[in-house]
Amino acid sequence: MSEKVIYVMFDCDGILKDGAKMLVSKGVKISDTFSPFPIHGIDPIIGVKNTRLGIMSFLYGLTGLTLATLGMRFFMIKDWPMNIGGKPNFSYFENLLAFVPISFEFTVLCAAHGMAITYFLRNKTLPGMPAQNPDPRTTDDKFVIEIRTAENSMDEKELDKLIKKTGYIEIDKKTI
Amino acid sequence: MQKEAAIREPLILGHKSFHDITEDVCRPIEDKAPKLWYILFGIALIIGVYGVGCILYLLGTGVGVWGLNKTIGWAWDITNFVWWVGIGHAGTLISAVLLLFRQKWRMAINRSAEAMTIFAVFMAGLFPLIHMGRLWVGYWVMPIPNQFGSLWVNFNSPLLWDVFAISTYLSVGLVFWYIGLIPDFATIRDRAKKPISKKMYSILAFGWSGRAKEWNRFELVSLVLAGLATPLVFSVHSIVSFDFATSVIPGWHTTIFPPYFVAGAVFSGFAMVQTLMLIMRKAMNLEAYIHTKHVEYMNIVIMVTGSIVGTAYITELFISWYSGVEYEAYAFINRATGPYWWSYAAMMTCNVVSPQLMWFRKLRRSLLFTFFISIVVNIGMWFERYVIIVTSIHRDYLPSSWSMHYPSPIDIGVYVGTIGLFFVFFLLFARFFPVLALNEVKSILKGSGQSYKESPDYYKSH
Questions:
Q1: Residues of A in contact with B207 (CB under 8 A)
Q2: Do A108 and B152 touch (CB under 8 A)?
């Protein structure tokens, strides 16, 4: 059986949200939405889980802090202790204050860039990637719900009947 | 949708729709550039090229072409560096700190303020690099063992902290800015008609589609980056101030430097944002998005940070007397009454007096007055660095080595050249990039737009 994708277009994020709520309550599975800006509150309705990128950022930051500490301990204490006005150069702890700025900067550097790279990879947004929004207007002022027939048990007619109640402005069906 | 009290002034004037916002921001990019743009770009380019010429001459001849001498080993180079870094503090403050505080007015200005930040930090970074004289060994500041064995860079030195601070600030700022730009590039991509611009913007847009999950990640990444960038903003200028504060020169080694420098940086950064925004909103017809209220908010920031700076100046002066240290006291008497009294007077007038005028509502809501003050503040902040740097070292402990600093034509050429280059970058940005964060502005339209303020049900019926 060929799979059909139904794109339901709205011109207001509020109407889309109400429509999505109604569809989901009737047992329709919505696979995605496309919008020009984040629709707040849509994620729990269509079942999008919260991203874990924040945790990743913390881990990258921790890695950065560890690397900075180990690095500076090796450079300044183990490998080549510098004599700066006779200050103690044999212990990391006694020099700790001087190492704070770089430890901090390197932590931020790793946390920010690690997270950004992960974000690009997970999103599959990379230079040269093709755009996947169904209609160019979804980056301007239109909002679209994507429903796949394969993911839904009810037949198309029944779906159409439900969709009619949402207050959409356009509907587009594609066979893939 | 977060609603806002109707009593607050709307942030978006006129009865705009989502599509109007897209049109207003994208039209200047899609249309032919006005003649004025070419004229300004030409002037900036000529000045910038002259600056590059001066830099090349400097690199070919040596740092001796600057007006430095045995007593004054640091002058315009580090003054310009600190000045540019300071200017580069507004953008990240606006986009990061104000994001954490949920200030919606930031959305109209964050994009261009951040662009300004990045270009300003580029200019700042130039100065330590060319100051090395031998630019090609610039990689020696990286922690790599050098040719003579395993001698490492000195991690106890504030100059090395600077290397880490500035490069982290620049690269994180760049990433933060670009992540915000991606959805807006997608908007331009989807509107583009010409094949070349379509191709260019689709590469820049990274294939952004605006899926629910993409927005979910986008919002979290913006929030976490803002959280990371906030302490970064404060740390960068603190570290720049350590260049002076950790030394033993009277007039430099004061513990007040980090907060005082950070306040000064925000002060001058907002002044530069005002200068640029006031021209841009007119030139690109963005008066509906960047209006008197935005200018007023920024003027309040200028007033607050300006007052912090003024308090710091007076505290410094008081402490130099109260400390009982002769050398410290002399450094400050010399600043105010010595041969450089005029630069001290300029700094005091521009930075202490002018922000206090913002207490008057009429003045802080006057665009012309704001433009004037923003330039005054930037001149004042340049003099602040000049005063701190040159007057503290030009009269040494030994009167026999007392000296004066006179800038050479190359000093002036490099400085003016960086201003030219900065405007070259900024004009290119204004021509090809969305100068307003489209997607963010759209998300506040229904809560903070004029239509909502006038009749809260406006968007239900439209």
A1: 124-126, 128-132
A2: no
Q: Percent of chain A, pLDDT > 70?
A: 99
User: Which strand (E) or helix (H) includes residue A4?
Assistant: strand A4-10
For residue B339, give its domain range.
18-144+151-449
Q: Does B143 touch chain A (CB under 8 A)?
A: yes
**pTM for the model:** 0.91
> Where residue B100 sits, what CATH number does that domain have?
1.20.1630.10
CA distance B14 to B444: 14
Q: Which residue of A has its CA nearest to B172?
A: A112
pLDDT given at position B3: 63
**How many angstroms from the chain centroid is the CA of residue B344?**
23
Give the DSSP letter of residue B12. Answer: B
* B-interface mutation test, from A102, A110, A126, most B Cβ less than 10 A away: A102
Tokens of B364: 């802080």
Burial of A110 (0-12, 13-18, 19+ CB in 10 A): buried
B272, part of any domain: yes
For chain A, the maximum distance between any two Cα atoms, rounded to a whole number of angstroms, is 85
A51, B22: Cβ pair inside 8 Å?
Answer: no
Residue B372 included in any domain: yes
Q: Which of residues 249-278 of B touch A (CB under 8 A)?
A: none
Distance (Å, rounded) from C-alpha B302 to C-alpha B308? Answer: 10
Measured in degrees and rounded to the nearest 5, phi and psi for residue B461 equal -95, -10
Residue B462 lies in a domain: no
Pull the structure tokens for residue B169: 């600030």
Contact, B180 vs B111, CB < 8 A? Answer: yes
Give the ipTM of the model, two decimals please: 0.91
Contact A80 B152 (CB under 8 A): yes
Contact B3, B456 (CB under 8 A): yes
The pLDDT of residue B386 is 92
For B104, the 3-state DSSP assignment is coil
- Per-residue pLDDT tens, chain A, 176 aa: give them: 567 888 888 888 888 888 888 888 888 888 888 988 888 888 888 888 888 988 999 999 999 999 999 999 988 888 888 888 888 888 888 888 889 999 999 999 999 999 999 999 988 888 888 888 888 888 888 888 888 888 877 877 878 888 888 888 888 888 87
**Helix (H), strand (E), coil (C) string for B323-372:** CCCHHHHHHHHHHHHCCCHHHHHHHHHHHHHHHHHHHCHHHHCCHHHHHH
* Dist. CA B4–CA B214, nearest whole Å: 27
Size of the A and B interface in Cβ pairs below 8 Å: 201
Has residue B24 been placed in a domain? yes
Identify the structural domains of chain A with CATH numbers, from first to last: 4-50+142-175 (3.30.70), 53-123 (no CATH)
Report the number of distinct structural domains present in chain B: 1
